[in-house]
Amino acid sequence: MDESFGTPVTxxxxxxxxxxxxxxxxxxxxxxxxxxxxxxxALLGWSIALVPPLAVxxxxxxxxxxxxxSAGNLGLVLGVGAFFSFVTNPLAGRLSDRTMSRHxxxxxxxxxxAVIGYTGIAIIAYAPxxxxxxxxxxxxxxxxxxxxxxxxxxxxxxxxPRRRGRVASFISLAQNVGGVGATFLVQLFPIGxxxxxxxxxxxxxxxxxxxxxxxxxxxxKRPTERxxxxxxxxxxxxxxxxxxxxxxxxxTRFFLNTTQFTATSYLTYFxxxxxxxxxxxxxxxxxxxxxxxxxxxxxxxxxLGWLSDKVGRRKPFVIxxxxxxxxxxxxxxxxxxxxxxxxxxLILGAGTGAFFAVxxxxxxxxxxNEETAGKDLGVANLAQSLPQSIIPVAAPGIIxxxxxxxxxxxxxxxGLLGAFSVTRVRKVR
Length: 429
Description:
Order of helices and strands: EHHHHHHEHHHHHHH
Strand content: under 5%
Transmembrane segments: 34-59, 71-88, 109-128, 134-155, 167-190, 196-214, 250-272, 284-305, 317-338, 402-423
CATH architecture: Up-down Bundle
Number of domains: 1
Radius of gyration: 20 Å
CATH class: Mainly Alpha
Largest sheet: 2 strands, parallel
CATH superfamily: MFS general substrate transporter like domains
Structural class: mainly alpha
GO molecular function: transmembrane transporter activity
Organism: Streptomyces apricus
Membrane topology: Multi-pass membrane protein
InterPro entries: MFS_dom, MFS_trans_sf, Sugar_transporter_CS
Number of helices: 13
């Protein structure tokens, strides 16, 4: 592994020991200005790597392999892949908390995850049948979620609390703009191997290049807690009675991610089957929809992250964003034309952008212990991966009974639940 993947910063467990080099903010040192840029930039690359198969290329690949069974197969592939995401993310967070590599706690997992994730995407590109697509997406989810857990854990490591709202807003901006960049790259290629491989490769290279110069935290004392089966199981849970604010923040993230993922997971098939878009035109239409979503996001995210830090409040922004996102998804559900769909995406983007501008800052504000930030944020990330498991399982039945509009209206309901759940967080205003 290259030496650039880590500059030693001493950190122990419990009471933090003296440091031997420039410490991360979480270690009591000065903030890293580059890290505040590098983390969003790396997550931009992560998003560009993930979105092409998730939003477009898997759906089109499955239509190539089995046209009649494509909707059911998409649910199967996304559901199983999301299960691996569910399992991997908290484990990766816990492992990165315990890592004693001289290259750092987080970056070795980012590098390994990127390589594994892209290997899975390559399997999808050359898959001869649905089973290989399923295997490839499962491998990709494992790798990319190892990288994601370590990247998100860098936020409390590297950024002081008073600046996290701004950095979190740029993380949200980067991930959503990544969707635009990813779908733009996808529609440049005809349906086939290059369409699967090239956009994700660009994202992986950007992710690794962004984090390479960051001075990662390096653990020099072994963790006191043994990594036994009980501890591994603990990677997936926390005590909501002991940490109620984290519990309600977790639920809020789950509800809003359900709203967001509902809008993206079956968008390709909604365009084809409800708005009479051809398979060849679908990537371009998906790009236009994601672009409209990103425009809404760009209008609000940078301002609200800064404003949240300025006024010292998070909850009002989350409540407003939940209601706006709900309205956007309702409009998408009722769309009878491309312009109406794009307007719905614009409104949805404004809502989810406002939410993600402050929700990561809210989560880091209620963490029980920054020494276990990787593990706790890994558990929080389950709220992001669970909808990806549940929706593909439930979607075929909902679509069969109520069509794609019924699926989207169901997702909108979760936006309302998100507006309620954040009001229960007490520690953060």
